[in-house]
Amino acid sequence: MNDFLNVLMSLQLPFALIPVLTFTSLPSVMNDFANGLFWKVAGGLLILLICCINMYFVVAYVMSLNHVALYIGAGILSVIYLSFVAYLVSWV
């Protein structure tokens, strides 16, 4: 159960990181304290790295379950999940 909860939390992390980067980059929200171009790019690359590491651990966990139906279900959910994350990133 602990491994499942860790996988679940790693899937939820982009939904916290991406809005933080988005809102701190908007001058209409942050005024003079908005992120500059360097911090937008650096933050985006760091978020991408964190998401890739988390996706690796999710794939490793699902592969350790050794059940074909779980592979198919995880594949479908991964496509939906990555599509939604791409939608969030498109707003940046």
Automatic annotation (TrEMBL):
Family matches, as InterPro entries: NRAMP_fam (IPR001046)
Transmembrane region(s): 12-30, 37-62, 68-89
Membrane topology: Multi-pass membrane protein
Keywords from the named record: Ion transport, Iron, Iron transport, Lysosome, Membrane, Transmembrane, Transmembrane helix, Transport
Transmembrane among keywords: yes
Subcellular location as annotated: Late endosome membrane; Lysosome membrane
Entry annotated with the keyword Transmembrane helix: yes
MF annotations from Gene Ontology: cadmium ion transmembrane transporter activity; iron ion transmembrane transporter activity; manganese ion transmembrane transporter activity
GO CC annotations, alphabetized: late endosome membrane; lysosomal membrane; plasma membrane
Sequence similarity: Belongs to the NRAMP family.
Name recorded for this polypeptide: NRAM2 protein
Organism: Pedionomus torquatus (Plains-wanderer)
Organism phylogeny: Eukaryota, Metazoa, Chordata, Craniata, Vertebrata
